[in-house]
Write a structure and sequence with these properties.
Elements: E1 7-10, E2 19-25, H1 29-36, E3 37-38, E4 52-60, E5 65-75, E6 86-92, H2 95-107, E7 111-112, H3 117-124, H4 130-141, H5 145-155, H6 158-182, H7 190-212, H8 214-222, E8 224-229, H9 236-244, E9 262-268, E10 271-277, H10 287-302, E11 305-311, H11 318-327, E12 332-337, E13 354-356, H12 365-376, H13 390-409, H14 415-433, H15 439-446
Parallel strand pairs: 1-7, 8-10, 8-11, 11-12, 12-13
Antiparallel strand pairs: 1-2, 2-6, 3-4, 4-5, 5-6, 9-10
Helix pairs in contact: 3-4, 4-5, 6-7, 6-14, 7-13, 13-14
Length: 453
């Protein structure tokens, strides 16, 4: 990518729709569009005011063939998404007109945008910082209103504001330390030393709180991984269907019907739940079932929460007891299913919460959903900024380690060591908002975007 490039891409999903958009950004965006656009009123794009929509046609300059009837929007820098000149061509939403319009822009001076390059330019041109750029993708991928709300808060700069506040305070401490290094004849007064220590300790506490928010924050961003487990024929697939409110899994009276892990998303109080139905855990009778059981056990190990299902209409069996023992070390809920039938006398461990439901009638499902949410989300959403991105969490962890090392170095180490540790922490915080970046970091972030955003 160079500063003089003008890029173009289709910015709406491919397929049939009412409208499809071809977007251009760069110094030649308006000039390229001018070569292709024909206004019935003879209006030219070079003279049109910014943020105006024009009606007309896109035509091929080589043969004057009209390609599509369009609405064209001219947006002049710096008041655009990328802070460059931007043109958006609203075409009919079929695949053919979009491709033909895009091909014409590429033939007349644009190049095809790379994944996420429009947003990358917005970052490089200073319109948004790096954490806000990542939030753009989170908004696009949000699976619930709550996860979208978190992403929008980050896009508006809530996390950036918090990180920049931490950086400003840390910069102030660094300045004090380095002033004493530059003027060694000026000894640090006890009161000043205590003030520096207190300032670093406050930063450690605030960064630690941000780090703790990640486990729950990632649930809203990526979805909570919940696994339904149990022996065959206890109603695992029926429970999945009941939670989804549709028939997703095949349900039969024959044990071993589910041979693989089925995965779906549901919304529980704004929390995206990535719920997985697994094969019944028992002694396998063939290779396919054996592989299904192996995947079930693996899914249990990787789950954020496990719903251990037991058939409440029959006495406990060895497979049930083995499941209970396995789940004691996990974040788990025991689900006694089939309460619409005559209940057997079950003696269960007090180590796990127990909920009684009927996948058939729906009884107890609302209470189960609330329990899933409360087992995994303990933080009040009004408490402040929540970290949802693993990259941010790793940078915060590194900053916290640097600050703790700086505190330790104040006990007898040369001030140069303290300054070095503080600078390391400052750089790690800078990575989050993009004041410190490498090409590798940028490529990793923006390669996850679709082309056209």
């Amino acid at each position: 990518m160079t500063d003089t490039d003008t890029i173009a891409a289709i910015s709406t999903p491919l397929g049939e729709g009412g409208i499809g958009i071809v977007r251009l950004s760069g110094p030649a965006a308006i000039k390229i569009a001018e070569q292709l656009f024909v206004s019935p009123k003879g209006r030219t794009l070079e003279k049109v005011k910014t943020h105006r929509v024009l009606y007309g046609f896109i035509r091929d300059p080589e043969n004057s063939e009209k390609v599509d009837e369009v609405l064209l929007t001219v947006m002049r820098s710096p008041h655009t998404y990328t802070r460059e000149d931007v043109v958006e061509i609203n075409c009919h939403g079929g695949l053919l007109p979009l491709r033909r319009v895009l091909e014409l822009t590429l033939r007349h001076g644009a190049r095809l945008a790379e994944p996420g390059e429009f947003t990358k330019r917005a970052f490089l041109n200073g319109r948004i910082d790096l954490s806000q750029a990542e939030a753009v993708l989170d908004v696009i991928r949000a699976k619930t209103e709550e996860s979208e709300k978190l992403a929008l808060e980050q896009l508006k700069g809530a996390l950036s504001e918090k990180i920049n506040n931490l950086r400003d305070r840390l910069l102030n401490i660094c300045a004090h330390i380095e002033a004493y290094i530059d003027f060694p004849e000026e000894e640090i007064e006890p009161a000043s030393m205590q003030e520096i220590k207190t300032g670093i300790e406050d930063l450690v506490n605030e960064i630690s709180a941000l780090c703790r928010s990640y486990d729950e924050g990632r649930f809203f961003r990526e979805g909570l991984k919940a696994v339904i487990a149990g022996r065959p024929n206890v109603g695992k697939s029926s429970l999945l269907n009941a939670l989804l409110k549709r028939d997703r899994a095949i349900v039969t009276e024959m044990p071993g019907t589910t041979r693989d892990v089925l995965e779906e998303y549901i919304n529980i109080n704004g929390l995206p739940l990535r719920i997985m139905d697994t094969a019944g855990i028992r002694q396998a009778h063939d290779m396919a079932e054996e592989e299904g059981v192996r995947r079930s056990l693996q899914a249990i190990e990787e789950a954020d929460i496990v719903l251990g299902v037991i058939d409440g209409s029959v006495p406990l069996r060895d497979g049930d007891m083995s499941l209970v023992e396995r789940l004691k070390e996990k974040n788990s809920i025991l689900v006694i299913n089939k309460i619409d039938l005559l209940q057997a006398d079950l003696s269960l461990s007090d180590a796990l919460p127990v909920f009684r439901v009927s996948a058939k009638t729906g009884e107890g499902l609302d209470a189960l959903k609330d329990a899933i949410f409360n087992r995994c989300v303990h933080r009040d959403r009004t408490e402040g900024v929540m970290v949802t991105n693993l990259r941010h969490k790793l940078a915060l962890d590194a900053a916290e380690r640097g600050l703790k090392a700086a505190l330790g170095s104040l006990e007898g180490e040369p001030l140069e060591i303290t300054a070095m540790e503080l600078r390391e922490a400052l750089d790690r915080l800078g990575e989050i908002v993009g004041t410190v970046t490498t090409e590798d970091i940028l490529n990793k972030i923006f390669n996850d975007f679709c082309i056209g955003k």
